[in-house]
Each structure stands twice: as C-alpha cells, then as structure tokens.
Amino acid sequence: MRRNLRRATRRPLAAAVAAAGLLGLISAMPGAPRASERAADAPEPVAAVANTATVFYYTKTKNWPSTYLHYAPDGGSWTTVPGVKMDPACTDWVKQTLDLGSAEGLRATFNNGSGTWDNNNGANYALGTGALTVKDGVIAHSDPCAGGENPTGNSATVYYATSALNWSAYNLHWAPTGGSWTAVPGIAMESACTGWVKKTVDLGTATSWQATFNNGNGTWDNNNGANYALTTGRTTVSNRTVTKDADDPCAARPPDTEAPSVPAKVTASATGISVVVSWEPSTDNKGVTKYQVTRVGGTKGTVVTDVGSTVHSDSGLEERTTYTYTVKAVDAAGNTSAASAPVQATTGAKPPEPPAGTPLGTDPRKDPIYFVLTARFNDGDSSNNRGGSQHTKSGNAANNDPMFRGDFKGLVDRLDYIKGLGFSAVWITPVVLNRSDYDYHGYHGYDFYKVDRRLESDGASYQDLIKAAHAKGMKIYQDVVYNHSSRWGAKGLFTPTVYGVRDSQWSWYYDEKNEGFEYDGLTVDPKSGKSYYNGDLWSTAEPAGNTCLNWGKPTGGSSPEGYTLYNCQWPNPTSGMFPKAYYHNCWIGNWEGEDARSCWLHEDLADFNTESAPVQNYLIGAYNKYIDMGVDGFRVDTAVHIPRVTWNRRFLPAIQERVTSKFGATAAQNFFVFGEVAAFVNDKWNRGSVNHSAQFYTWKERKEYDADDQKAAIEQYDYEQQLGIGSQPTSDNAFLTGTNGNTYHAPDRSRFSGMNIIDMRMHMNFGDAPNAYHNGKDSDDSTNDATYNVVYVDSHDYGPNKSSQRYAGGTDGWAENMSLMWTFRGIPTLYYGSEIEFQKGKQIDCGPSCPLASTGRAYFGDHLAGTVKASDFSKVESASGQVATTLDQPLVKHLQRLNEIRRAVPALQMGQYSTEGISGTMAFKRRYTSGSTDSFALVTVSDGATYTGIPNGTYTDAVTGDVRTVSNGTLTVAAPGKGNLRVYVLNGPGKIGAAGPYLK
C-alpha cells in the first residue's frame, strides 16, 4: 500500500492530537515532568493561599471597555449578573481577588457588562485557588503582572524564546546555587519583544543558578530533565540552546541594507513549449532567501515568479515564441540584487498528444514483474523534482534527495536495464495527481483524472512511457486505488473546506488563497512560493452548506506547540465535513470486521463510499482513461477494504467492458488485475474471516443480494461469514489431474471474479523458502486459479513475517527464494533493487520521521548511472559506468538465467502442478498443454528429489544439460545445493544459458 503508516498500526487521532500528528513540523516541548525532573531540589507544589483566588483575565483579544467576573464558589451561589467589575492589573490584564470561604475552587464566566459573554463555549471556567490566568480560553496558574525585586546582589537576566511554543503564560522556576527553589510554578516572566520573554533575578552572593520554564498549566521545559545551568549576566535560552553573555535579543539592530550579489551564468534552454532557466547561487551577508525570475515575451506580457532554488522550469508557453529571462536574488530583509544579464530562449512547436497505446494482450503468466516506486527509481529530469512540505523535517533536504525524484523519463531511460534483467512487465506506483504532506508514493490521490506532473516531462509523458515499454515488448501494470482519496478529497467529486484562519499561529502553514492558481503538485504558487500550496483548501469564512458542528470555533485544546485548535480544522470522517454520498463517516475499529470495508483506515486516507453511484462513476471514468491509454493491467491497492460484491457488481465488470470495447475480447481476457488483499497471518483463512481472505476475492458471488449496494455489502458479509470456511468454493485449476497427477486439463474460469491476488501467504513466509512453498500450496484449492498469483518476497510495505525491514536473509537466501518463485506456480515479482540486495535490513518506510535515503524506499538511480542497452530479455548488449557494476552482481546473474529458463519452458509460466509420487523438500512437476505445445517439467529447489509415476521418455536438465532416459516412470535427482535448481524437461530444449554463481 504505501505510506507513512500502515494498516495494523493505524488508529484515528483525537482532535487535540491531529494538528501535531499530521503536521509534526515543530517539535513540542516535553510534557509535564515529575517534581524531581523539574528541579533537583524543587518542593512539591502547594496552594498559594487557602480559600483565596486571584483571577487574571486577558483583555487584548476582547478589547472590552470594562470586564466583569460572574462566579460561584464550589457549592455556593452565583453572583448577580453581570458580577463584579474587575480591576486593572497591568498592560492587557485585569484581576479580581476573591474570598472563597471554605470552597476549594469556583466556576466563572466573564462579560463586558452589556450582554457579551465569554463562558468557555457554554462550559463555564472551572478554576481553583491561588493566582490564575484566563487567556483566550486557556487557564494557567500564574501571575502575569508579577515583578521581581530590584537586585541587591549578583543579578542575572534570562531571555526565553517563545516562537515555537505560544504558551498563554511563561513562568520561571529557579534556584540560586546552594539556595532554595521558588514555589511551583515559579515567577511570571514579562514580555520583552516579539518572540521573547525575560526575567531579572537577584542571586544574592551566588554566581550561578538553575532554571526551568513552564506555562503554569503543567507543561514544562526542563531541558529534558537536566534543568538549565545559568550564570550571572545576560543569558538567552532558545530551543534548549543556552547562550552565555548573549547580546540583547530585543535590542535594535542595524538594518540589513546589503543586497545579494547578482546571479551569474544564467542560461535558458527550450524544449517544445517549455523553458528551463538555471544560474549559479548568489552570495549575501545574511543569506539569500529566494530568487525572482522575470519573463518577458508572448501575449501574457511580463511575468515574475519567485523560486526557491537555482533552477526554474517554465512550461505551458506559446509556440515558436522568443522569451527573455532575467534573475534577481532577494534576502530576508527584502534587499534585491540588480537583474542578471538577460538570456533568451525560443520555444518550438507544441508536442502533439501521443496517440493512445494498445495493450500487448498476451497471457500475463508469461511476464515476470519488476516493481518500482517511480519517484524513487531513476531521475531523468531534475526540473520536476519536488521536496514538499516535509523536505527539511524528513531529513531529505540534508541529503539533497527530494521525495519526488524519479520520474517517467528516468524509467524510460532504464527500461533496457529492466529488460536486461529479464523482466517483461513493470508494475509502477499510482500515477494520479497526489496531494498530502508526503505523497511521493502515489497513494494519496487527489485528481484521479490527471497524471501527476511531478512524474512527467516533455517527451516523457505517461503515454510515452506506455508506448516505450510496449515497443520493447514490455507491459505496464498501473497501481490503482479505488478505496480512498487523500484527506483533501477527490477533485471533481468532493473536496472539503476546512477551518484555516491565517492567524499569527497558523499563517506559516495556511497559504493565502490565490484565486488564479490551481494546485498541480509541480507549479510554484507566486504568493506562497510553494508547489504544495494549500490556500484553496482553507476558508476563514464558514463555507456554504457546511455540516461540521461548531465550525471554526476553538476546541478548548491546543497542539503540543501551544497553538489553539479549532473545530473542523482537519478533515476527518466523524466531523461532518465529508458527505455520506461520497465518503464513509467512521473510523475503522475491527480489522477483521465489516467496518474494515466501510471506514477510514487513517486520517490521510479518506475512505470513498464505494457503494455510492456518484463515487463509482467517478472512479470508473477515471480509470477508463488509463485503460484507453493502453496499460496492460491494474494492481489494485487496498482491495480487501471494498466489499467483494461491489467489486463484482461494479468495478471489475467496468474494467472488462472498457477493455473489450476498446481492444477486443482477447485483450480483456489478458488484462491483468491483481489485488492487494492484505492478510498478515499464516492462516489459510484470515483469522477465520472469509470476507478478509485473499482467495475469497477471486470468486463471483453465489447469490443475489439487495439492489442497493450498501445493503448488499452487509448482506454479503453476513451471509458468507455465517456459511463460513467449509462452504467456500474449491478449484483444481492450479493442479494436474489424472493418473499419477500428470495430466493438464482446461481450467474452469466460469466462476472467476476478474480479480487475481498477491500471494500473501508466500510473502509472509519467505523468511524460509520451504515455509513459503508449503504455505502457498495450502491455499491453492480455495483460489480460483493460483497460477495467476503474484508472488514476491518483500515490497514497499513489508518484508516476510510482517517485518518492517527489507529482506536481509543473505544472498543465498535470496537465490533460493528466487529459484522457487521462478519455477513454482504464480508470477514472480521483484521489488526494485532486490537484485543487488539494495537497502537490505533497512526500515522500509518511516514517513517523514527519517530521511528516505535511510529506508527501503531510497533512491536507486545512483546504481543505474551510465549507459545500458539490452538486445533481448536477460541479454545486455552493452553497459558502462555504475550500471555495468550493478549488472555484474551475483543475484543479477542468477535472475537473468532464471528468466531465460522460465521464458523457454511454457510449463514454468502457465503450467498446473502436482506433488503426487514425489519426495523432496521443494519438488514438484508442472505441465502446460495447448494446441501443439506440451511442456512437462520436473523441478527441485536446493534439495534432492525422486519422481515416480512420471511419463517415460528423455528428460534434459535446463540448468546443466544433463540428459536422463526414463523407462520405468522414475527419476532421481541429487541435491543441487542451496539456491541451485534442477529443471528436467521432457523432450526439452537442453541447457539454457550459461552457468552462474548459483545455477550450475
């Protein structure tokens, strides 16, 4: 599937956690520490004055002419409306001291004396005793007007940075060395200037002291439990960094008037109707923050674009038009350099839309599959690279490794590499326009009708990739998602409008709306300077038709950074933001229950209501577009999270109908659809639930259900669960029959649903090849036709045994797994880079919490640098540079020969199998008969085997060329060794390929 997170660990986030959980762009300070963590000698908190409360209320936000406190002691009566008038305390604060008698707290509201109230959104404020502040709905324990005594001994002034916190109050809890700590929460700090508070303390005779900081409401910064060690004089504390004898951060500084240097060596080159402008970085005394690229020419006049790098890709220009470009550098103070020397580029003709391709239309079992994360495979065009909002936080920036790095051009450039390995099908991750904070993988679809521009280039569109692959005899399998969109909805169906006031806290994240700009993932919005612009998704005014309760009102909570959280600030299924006609309105609770098919898996995966006709039409129409382009099949993401009856009624017939109408019945029969039905257990039936087992999805329905798809889905679930495992259909389509299990028979596909499956049981058990083999066989009688199963060791999600690391079983282990996959039933599939054990043992995916370079989704293109040309499958005509070194690795040689052997023996591609009359750990026989073709092979992997009851005749080993004549129906084969193989073919072609590191 993907992603930053994965199924079993996904659970809905509470609203108060959502902002930080989804953004995570500012590190929160540690939570409430124990007293021993706050300060080594700090006393336990004590009440300030028993039965007395001094309430401070913040006036700047309300700006009322007068403020009244209406209150009731706990167990007592309320004051008469409007209550008691509060007294001035200090700038922006009023206060009132109350005698509570025997009460230990009070309920309070505030008003302006003229009918305008702050009653905590109807909940009233629950206050205790001592000094209390109420600021913008947040209660803290502090005296915001408290000041220190004039120092009579050694003094120290500490400035504390607030920009990453935005607490409502700041307290300094401190102790001079050898002295006592202040009472918790300490003394209030005073505002110094924007982004800073300060406090001067009297140390007496001490020359050093310890300090911690808190918000008066239980949130502390205690330097990760170590306290801050400070000295006399002026000190600053910013993000846990202490600067001794620091400059006054609030002192006026000389203005920066020095402009950056003029950008040099500016070049512009045109391709079709696109121009790429590049230049050398400018220098500046404080640092360059951006560049301004000015374009003159064409009918649109002068256009100025802000650019964050030293490359600007200008696309969608007019044909045969000369454009002039100049570049200026800008620093943080707004100083702008002079314009560079102008450069010109003249566009050519607009490239014609490439004609649609035609699927190759051959039996998919003939084609071993190479699986690539397109954005991480090979970079053919750096101008479409994008890092997104998480570029720095993830660590990718430090590696100069944007998440969107590989592209179709890079894939086209290395089709010969993949063909040289011997693969004739390429499975690529989703191509639709994505939208999220970290969406390079393709599973956060936003516009399902558009190809993501971060993958395309002039001359290397998606259509160009399909045609280039077909020209080499290679298929393209497109990863598709029917189950969900991104949390921003699906363009053309429904996109939510969420609360996004651009206040002082959130304006760094919410972009200003730009009515003339449309997000496409690639183009930089001139207002925000971002390609991941989000101004179209936010609204400071309540949207028409809003159904989200309390839209835009404070929740009363705050993010870990201290930012105010608002209702409807983040899309989620239970808020009312998403209409039921388009999206399911629940969080998943039971991964083996019906709600796994009808609820959200994760906050970034908005779950389509796939039983709704508008949604069905939207998705069918979108994927018809890609069928028309000539793709050869679909890998279906999260297939298990849509009811089988919906697949069988709507989506699978729609695929068949479209391919048939465009390309004919044979193409439709061979259009390969294989679904991800993730069952991470070793059970034949996933925890006893037939509805959540992979093989279940290969079958048509057994009865009619309600005409309403939503009712039908529940009826089907209940019906199949009640009938249970014992009543499920069985098949012999994968098995040889007849005397001694030697006879191939025409498979019965009349009850086939149209969806094949990824072999999850083999995948789960590939930590040990014999386990994978025996577990795989165990499910074949309940699968419509297991010869179509897609078989892999690891992927972009998991390694064997639900491991979160890429396979690290060693080269011998890989060789053995490959030898089994390439000869046993099913279609062998390899995740990119496994041919050189790329990133073995590395965590496959950690989202933006670590750099991609450290994961199993690292960029592979460095291993492909140079040139490569394939003369045929498994045949490299020439190679130079790093790719030549890559192609010389032992597993590459092993793969090339396995693909040669499999391609030469039809029984290994499409044959049924049997283990009847065979001894051996991984030993079987396979046969395929069609017309004049009759291919029969005896296979053993790693260990020896004896075959009895086999047809007499001459058998030749495809690995060694050894010839055996069988006259008594028996053949014995010695153990070839781990990872090695014997394939004795009746009347076979002889030895295929040259001996290698394992096949010898």
Average of per-residue pLDDT values: 90
Number of helices: 16
Task: Give the total of beta strands.
Answer: 54
- Main beta sheet, described? 8 strands, parallel
Tertiary shape: globular
What is the alpha-carbon Rg in Å? 34 Å
Gap between N and C termini, in Å? 37 Å
Physical arrangement of strands within the biggest beta sheet: 41-40-39-32-29-28-43-42
* Strand fraction: 25-35%
Helix content: 10-25%
Query: Helices and strands: which structural class?
Result: alpha+beta
Low-confidence stretches at least 5 residues in length (pLDDT < 50)?
Answer: 2-49
Keywords: Hydrolase
Protein name: Alpha-amylase family glycosyl hydrolase
Organism: Streptomyces scopuliridis
List the helices and strands and how they pair.
Elements: H1 15-23, H2 35-38, E1 52-58, E2 68-73, E3 84-85, E4 87-90, E5 93-99, E6 106-111, E7 117-118, E8 125-127, E9 130-135, E10 138-140, E11 154-161, E12 171-176, E13 187-188, E14 190-193, E15 196-204, E16 208-214, E17 220-221, E18 228-231, E19 233-238, E20 241-244, E21 264-271, E22 274-280, E23 288-296, E24 303-307, E25 311-314, E26 322-331, E27 343-346, E28 369-372, H3 374-377, H4 408-413, H5 415-421, E29 425-428, E30 432-434, E31 445-451, H6 462-471, E32 475-481, E33 484-485, E34 498-499, E35 538-539, E36 554-558, E37 564-566, E38 606-607, H7 613-628, E39 633-637, H8 644-663, H9 665-670, E40 672-675, H10 709-723, E41 756-757, H11 760-765, H12 769-778, E42 790-791, H13 810-821, E43 827-831, E44 867-872, E45 875-880, H14 882-887, H15 890-904, H16 906-910, E46 912-914, E47 918-919, E48 923-930, E49 933-941, E50 945-948, E51 953-957, E52 963-966, E53 970-973, E54 981-986
Parallel strand pairs: 1-9, 11-19, 28-29, 28-43, 29-32, 32-39, 34-35, 39-40, 40-41, 42-43
Antiparallel strand pairs: 1-5, 2-3, 2-6, 4-5, 6-7, 6-8, 9-10, 11-15, 12-13, 12-16, 14-15, 16-17, 16-18, 19-20, 21-22, 22-25, 23-24, 23-26, 26-27, 30-31, 33-38, 36-37, 44-45, 46-48, 47-50, 48-49, 49-54, 50-53, 51-52, 51-54
Helix pairs in contact: 7-8, 13-15
